[in-house]
Amino acid sequence: MKGQPHSPTPLDDRGAAPAVAWPTELDARGSAPPNQLKAVLAALTAIPTGYPQFLRSRVEPTQLLRALAVHAVSAETGELPDGTWRTVVRRQAATPPF
Length: 98
Prior knowledge:
alpha+beta; 4-stranded mixed β-sheet; 2 helices; 4 strands; 22% helix; 22% strand; globular; disordered N terminus
């Protein structure tokens, strides 16, 4: 449509369209922190750099946040009205795929 900015299909780091629609939300409410980290890092490899990946957890993911910082992943978290936590994570642009 004229006057509308063009919205190209974002590509992953290899220049291909991602196989999975993103952002996605991982439900980690029943997972231990080491498993949460593995799941988030795996999910981040499937989406382009800078795009969000969401994680739901039962408690504030403080261990996960510290671990993600080591992997050059930015993260912000907040408590939801139901008492669970939602964390948004993004792989930094300068970081190679995991």
